[in-house]
């Protein structure tokens, strides 16, 4: 089968690979749609260390092709969504409520990390009964595939943010995860959602997904403006959706005592991330810093699909580009170099 791989750090290409085979509890899925993620770029840049001929991609939907002998609830032909995170559900971290950390920190992140990913004609799913979810008839593949990571991670930002009903939320950066965090904040009952973003097309999307006010960091002081918008109090919840030290520090500065800084960003550089000491109350300001990797799993995927089924959120506005799998090299370049105001690139198989 055809697979799109990271040959080595900094180099991607197509290659032929054998179709994977399932173990007793596993499934093999024939890919129908996939999305390219900023994480794929981080991986190719060496973010998880060197890899050779690793199939990229972790956001996909498809049709079950084969199941192992112990799989109970899925059969060949089922149309399925697979979470980007595919935990080992028997692991103690999963039993403790943190499935994405099964098998060690970030251990649930297997696709395009500890095993081949989904940018291939077929891909392997461990623990199929726990990691697959059937897609209801009324939901298209193009919408469902957003549940794999974008809705899951963005909503996690809002969930971990402990947003009070009517509370104030700042979402720092309106990339696809930030946009879904914005949508999640509105769904969680925020009374005021402030979206921080400078790109006009993303500002528009932020408003569409629920931002009441846009703050443009290129023309105004973000901290000053957010304090002004909240009567000098700061926000109940600041969601970091970029993965940059300056954004993280802004999040700490604009959060009120008792509030939560909810991180979804990937911090790929340096040995430490600095916390602004004064605004942290020299360590005593009652500000909680929450971190997380989106949990995968069938139950979570079913819940996210339910959000789509009742049209609470329409993720289709995130798709700015669409390419057939054959044109993956160009598709990856558009996403990687952030060309043409890209938000998300959809791949059709
Ligand atoms: Zn992703």
UniProtKB/TrEMBL annotation:
SMART domains: PKS_ER (SM00829). Pfam families: ADH_N, ADH_zinc_N. The keyword Metal-binding applies. PROSITE patterns: ADH_ZINC (PS00059). It comes from the Bacteria. Its cofactor is Zn(2+). Keywords: Metal-binding, Oxidoreductase, Zinc. CDD domains: NADP_ADH. InterPro entries: ADH-like_C (IPR013149), ADH-like_N (IPR013154), ADH_Zn_CS (IPR002328), ER (IPR020843), GroES-like_sf (IPR011032), NAD(P)-bd_dom_sf (IPR036291). Belongs to the zinc-containing alcohol dehydrogenase family. Residues 7-347 form the Enoyl reductase (ER) domain. This is NAD(P)-dependent alcohol dehydrogenase. The keyword Zinc applies.
């Amino acid at each position: 089968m055809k697979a799109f791989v990271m040959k080595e750090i900094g180099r991607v290409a197509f290659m032929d690979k054998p179709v994977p085979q399932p173990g007793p509890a596993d499934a093999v899925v024939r890919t129908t749609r996939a999305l390219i993620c900023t994480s794929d770029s981080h991986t190719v840049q060496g973010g998880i260390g060197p890899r050779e001929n690793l199939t990229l991609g972790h956001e996909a939907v498809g049709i079950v092709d084969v199941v192992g002998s112990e799989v109970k609830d899925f059969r060949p032909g089922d149309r399925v969504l697979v979470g980007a995170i595919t935990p080992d559900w028997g692991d103690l971290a999963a039993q403790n409520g943190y499935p994405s950390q099964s098998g060690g920190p970030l251990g649930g992140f297997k696709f395009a990390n500890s095993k081949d990913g989904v940018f291939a004609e077929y891909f392997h799913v461990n623990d199929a009964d726990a990691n697959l979810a059937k897609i209801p008839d009324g939901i298209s593949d193009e919408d469902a595939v957003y549940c794999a990571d974008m809705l899951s991670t963005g909503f996690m930002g809002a969930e971990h943010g402990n947003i009070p009903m009517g509370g104030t939320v700042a979402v720092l950066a309106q990339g696809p995860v930030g946009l879904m965090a914005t949508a999640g904040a509105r769904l969680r009952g925020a009374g005021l959602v402030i979206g921080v973003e400078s790109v006009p097309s993303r500002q528009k999307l932020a408003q569409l997904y629920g931002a009441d006010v846009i703050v443009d960091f290129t023309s105004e002081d973000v901290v000053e403006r957010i304090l002004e918008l909240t009567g000098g109090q700061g926000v109940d919840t600041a969601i970091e959706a970029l993965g940059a030290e300056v954004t993280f520090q802004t999040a700490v500065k604009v959060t009120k005592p008792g509030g939560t800084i909810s991180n979804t960003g990937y911090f790929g550089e340096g040995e430490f991330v600095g916390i602004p000491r004064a605004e942290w109350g020299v360590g005593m300001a009652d500000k909680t810093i929450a971190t997380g990797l989106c949990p995968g799993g069938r139950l979570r995927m079913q819940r996210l699909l339910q959000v789509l089924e009742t049209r609470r959120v329409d993720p289709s506005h995130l798709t700015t580009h669409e390419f057939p799998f054959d044109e993956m090299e160009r598709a990856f370049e558009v996403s990687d170099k952030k060309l043409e105001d890209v938000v998300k690139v959809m791949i059709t198989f």
